[in-house]
Prior knowledge:
Elements: H1 3-21, H2 23-44, H3 48-61, H4 63-72, H5 81-87, H6 89-92, H7 99-110, H8 114-117, E1 120-121, E2 127-128, E3 132-139, E4 142-149, H9 153-162, H10 179-193, H11 196-209, E5 216-217, E6 230-234, H12 241-247, H13 250-271, E7 273-275, E8 283-285, E9 291-293, E10 299-301, H14 304-318, H15 325-332, H16 342-352, H17 365-377, H18 391-408, H19 414-422
Parallel strand pairs: 5-9
Antiparallel strand pairs: 1-3, 2-3, 3-4, 4-6, 7-10, 8-9
Helix pairs in contact: 3-4, 3-5, 9-10, 13-18, 13-19, 14-15, 17-18
Amino acid sequence: MADRKRDKLKRLTTGWAGRTMGATRMAAQLGGSVVKKAVRAARDDEDLELGIALAERMDGMKGLMMKIGQMASYLEGTLPPAAQVALQKLQQGGDPLEYEAIAEVVEEAFGKPIAEVFERFDEEALAAASIGQVHRATAHNREVAVKVQYPQIAKTMEIDLGNARRLGLLAAIGTKVDSNLFVQELRERFREECDYLQEAANTTLFRRTFADDERVVIPEVIEDRCRGNVLTTGFVEGRPFYDFKENASQEERNLAGELIFEFAFRSIFGHCAFNGDPHPGNYLFLPEGRICFLDFGCVRYFGPAFVDAWKALAKCTLEDRREDLPEVMMATGMVGSSNYDFDYHWKVMQYLYKPFKTPGFIYTHEYVAESYEVMVLKNPNQRKTAMPAEWVFVNRLQWGMNSILALLGASGDWPRIFTHWVHQPTVPTPKPQRLEISS
């Protein structure tokens, strides 16, 4: 790269990168502010300014803080509704980097001008997310989507995670969670999320795994147009989440909810894998009830012992075997104290499994928001609960997927779907080898 071009790229990105480097320091201030504002706004529900301010600052910082903003934009109870609406821009439409900076990343990754890599590359981004942005392009005479990683974002994530104990929004406050293991799990997942060749392998694996379900669409990876910081897949045209939510019939929303639900539990109980980023920007809705699932950067692969322990807990709850709860809970590794209150935890399980035991259950905002009261605010086991590494991202099912279903107001035959996959044989899926590229 010529010195003049390097200087120009530096000017384009230094200010943004500098702000991201300071994310940890500011997060401590933001964390307290969010909690206080949310508590006040929970009473008056009018704090739109909070959401706008957070969206602007988190978008500018990208990386971990933007990811937190994405989660806060749809997880029930984290912020007042007006603030969440303001944060929704972070799911798909954050402010992208200028095309010139993105072109430099692509050219450096492939060692040639962008016009020699792609026949056409649209300068305007389709979406700008936490660690990269997506552009529409043409390769091999077909329409493709190209995700390009922000310059220095992997380093920024490392810095943020290195100070994660200071991030009030990430801390497992009041539990017996081993903070070192907790942060290490986050680091491993986010390191992989910054490796687009690993994401390419994950995407191909999930595409092959769900090839037998015509309702599930997963884009094809275009391997020779991928690098560690550039991911190219087939382009899929579909309706984004909020367009679908506002314009689809309730029957269509119900069917979509069932498919999102089944995709998650088939992945876990049928294949020992979980795509750990269930947010609205990662779904496209297609005709005939099909859904395109996007973004397989944050995938957790489980050992069969972990999944079997989870299945045992599920069966215990579904079959109302209260007497077996202590034994199955001990097997999960989540009991962190000798005076753990199993009676209260049985109440928690009845709350969590209410959808799975109630045909036609409707996911509502009230049901999801109640999670905080049942599982945190009134939970006597809060300081007695351990958190094995495998459970860290699984908890995003509890608020992430449930919040998606509540946004859809989805009703479905959850007991049939859940029970079916709980009783399937546990077949471990080995983590796929990172895609190898021969330059």
